[in-house]
Structures are given as structure tokens and as C-alpha cells.
Design goal:
The structure holds two protein chains of two kinds. Chain A is mainly alpha-helical. Chain A is built from one helix and no strands. In chain A, 0% of the residues are buried. In chain B, a hairpin with a 6-residue loop joins strand 1 and strand 2. In chain B, 33% of the residues are buried. Classes of the chains: A mainly alpha, B alpha/beta. Chains A and B meet through loops of A and helix 6 and helix 8 of B.
């Protein structure tokens, strides 16, 4: 639909897997940063 | 198609006379050329109004949702597949239905036809292969195959899947080499190109919800776009809200859509709504080997779990 595939991630993390959670979040953040800010499917609400 | 019409009227009149059904759902002549309207016949006299031609585009399974009566229904291939979907989703029981199956050779695309003329179309008639279109100053014969609806061109289930009676012999199914070439074109686009494609597709959407209302899959008592507490999506013409409506509606049809084209037929702005559901149909087929509405014996892939379901996307 035109959203960059870098923005979508699926992972299965148990509540006991704190280190895996940290690793995944770091990786996701890194990958999302490569595509920059998202301007698509954003609703601009005027105040 | 006159033989179809005659047979439909005859079978319907008999069913109603014998009180085998409470009413029969079919088509009657519309009020403008190239249009057929849904028609419900409760008496054999009313059954005389039934017709069948190349304009019976909408999906009559839409009228079956949660009915309690014993119903006769005139159903072409795609209507039948939606009847099957209705049955496995517990929206109607097979025993309630008497299905008069119509082997279908495809319907014509009213947009393609009207684009061939500058003037308003004032008359329509057809023989087996040729349609004749009249305007105020012109009359043209067109081969039916040249103006077939795009979903009929790639259809591989023209014959009814389940039926109690047939109006004619079964037709030969089309062998389509590449059913999804249109989807592949979109898949090959970059993210920005895809975005622009769908932006362009939806630029005329007026959010009348005709696509949803014509779709036999859209039977939720309250659609998410009509809900006000919580309000899932804005109700105005903001492009983000328009997209959200179309994306979510398409996802609700995943593994259920039969590509009948009722959404496209209903759209007053000529939007090719199928662009959204086609990709999901392709994925259903490629990932699960599933085409919706072909069997009463198997549950759809999205309401079952098997250990070998593909899950490569989960890290």
C-alpha cells in the first residue's frame, strides 16, 4: 500500500525474554531510522 | 440469453407454485439501459419479471444474510461462491436454500462500454456474442469479449459451485495462465510509487460506502466506519481516513473475497475497488492454496491453525 517495508516488524517475545526485547527494539529502531520520518498515512489535525 | 430468462422464469414459477420456497431472489430489467436490478418474487406472476442478460453484475448472495425463510436464489459462479462463504460463516443454512445455478459467460463492463460513446446510451440489446448499443444518433455492434468486466476476464469459476437446478449446461472454464498480472504490476512498484498509485485510485472516493453495501462479505451489524464509541476512523474526506476505510475493509475480506466485482459495479465514481482485495486473493492462493467459496468441507485458512502455517515474517 506504499508504507515502506522497513517500518513493519513482527517478533514473538515472551515476558521473560528481556534481553531479546532489548535486542529487537534496538534493531527495529536502527532499521526505521534508515527510512527517516514517516509522512504517509498521517492525519494532520489543525488546532 | 433469452433461453436463460425463459428457463429461470419457468423454474421459479414452479418453485413458487409448489410452495417449495417463500421467495426467489433474481434480477429484473433496470430502469436505464445496461442495468439489471435485484428482484424478489413471492408469486409465480412476479417470477415473470425475472430476466438474465450480460448486465446481471451485482452479487445476490448479499440478500441472504441472516434470513430465516426458505429462499430460492438465481446464482452465477461468483454468487454461488459467496453463498458457500455465507454457509460456512453461519449466515444461512444450506437447507434453507434452493439454488438455481446459472453457468456464466461473463458480464459486460458498463464503464468500458460507455467510454466508447460520447453520448448517453439510450438502448441496449444482445445476442449470444454481440451486444448492440444505441445512442441518440448512433448504433453500434460490439463483441461481448471486447467489453468483458476485468474480473470476468480472469474468472476460473464461471459455473455454480453448488446448486439444486441449472438453467443450462455447464460452460467450459477458462484456462488463465497468469490470473494476477495486475497485482504483480503493483507489487513491483517502489513504496512511493505504490503510495501514488493508491492515492490516485482513491482521489475521487466520496465515501458513500456503496462498495461496502454491495459486498456480500460486509454484513457486520455495525461496520467499523459507522461506530461512534469508540470512533475507529474519522468520518470526513481526509485522505488518511478514506485510505483507512478501504484498507481495513479489504483486510476484512482476506481469504473470503471471491472477486465478484460487486464493489466496482456499485461504485458511482468508477473506482477499481478490486485493486485492494486482489492482492489478498493472490496471497491466499499462494500462501495457503486457498480460493474462497469453493467447498463446504474445509474451513478458511484464516480461521484455522496448523503447525506448518508459514511464519517466516516473525523474527
Amino acid at each position: 500500500m506504499g508504507i515502506e517495508k522497513e517500518r513493519l516488524h513482527f517478533s514473538w517475545i515472551s515476558s521473560a525474554e528481556a534481553t531479546k526485547f532489548v535486542d529487537v527494539v534496538k534493531e527495529v529502531t536502527q532499521i526505521v531510522e534508515t527510512v527517516g520520518p514517516n509522512n504517509k498515512l498521517v492525519k494532520k489535525i489543525s488546532a | 440469453m433469452d433461453s436463460y430468462t425463459t428457463k429461470i422464469r419457468e423454474l421459479s414459477a414452479n418453485l413458487l407454485k409448489d410452495e417449495k420456497v417463500d421467495f426467489i431472489i433474481g434480477f429484473k430489467q433496470g430502469t436505464i439501459p445496461m442495468a439489471a436490478s435485484p428482484h424478489i418474487a413471492k408469486t409465480s406472476e412476479q417470477a415473470e419479471q425475472f430476466i438474465w442478460d450480460n448486465n446481471c453484475r451485482i452479487n445476490l448472495a448479499n440478500y441472504l444474510t441472516s434470513r430465516k425463510e426458505k429462499i430460492g436464489i438465481i446464482a452465477k459462479g461468483c454468487d454461488c461462491r459467496n453463498i458457500v462463504t455465507h454457509i460456512i460463516e453461519n449466515k444461512i443454512k444450506r437447507e434453507q436454500l434452493h439454488i438455481i445455478g446459472v453457468p456464466c459467460n461473463g458480464m459486460i463492463d458498463k464503464i468500458k462500454v460507455s467510454s466508447l460513446f460520447d453520448e448517453e446510451i439510450t438502448g441496449y440489446s444482445e445476442t449470444d456474442e454481440v451486444i448492440t448499443i444505441k445512442t441518440l444518433s448512433d448504433e453500434k455492434n460490439i463483441n461481448k469479449t471486447e467489453v468483458l468486466k476485468s474480473n470476468c476476464m480472469t474468472c476460473t469459476h464461471r459455473n455454480p459451485v453448488i446448486y439444486d437446478e441449472l438453467v443450462a449446461d455447464l460452460v467450459e472454464e477458462q484456462q488463465i495462465e497468469d490470473q494476477f498480472s495486475d497485482v504483480r504490476l503493483i507489487e513491483e512498484m517502489t513504496a512511493d510509487e505504490k503510495w501514488n498509485h493508491f492515492d490516485n485510485l482513491l482521489k475521487n472516493c466520496i465515501r458513500c460506502y456503496a462498495c461496502r453495501n454491495a459486498c456480500p462479505l460486509c454484513y457486520c451489524p455495525t461496520c467499523f466506519v459507522d461506530e461512534s464509541g469508540p470512533q475507529w476512523v474519522g468520518k470526513g474526506q481526509d485522505p488518511t481516513d478514506i485510505r483507512t476505510f478501504h484498507y481495513l475493509r479489504a483486510y476484512h475480506c482476506a481469504g473470503r473475497c471471491t472477486d465478484c466485482g460487486a464493489c466496482v459495479e456499485a461504485c458511482p465514481m468508477d473506482i477499481n475497488v478490486r485493486d485492494f482485495t486482489r492482492k489478498l486473493n493472490k496471497d491466499s492462493l499462494e500462501i495457503y492454496g486457498w480460493e474462497a467459496g469453493l467447498t463446504l468441507e474445509q474451513r478458511p485458512p484464516l480461521d484455522t491453525f496448523t503447525p506448518d502455517d508459514p511464519n517466516d515474517f516473525i523474527k
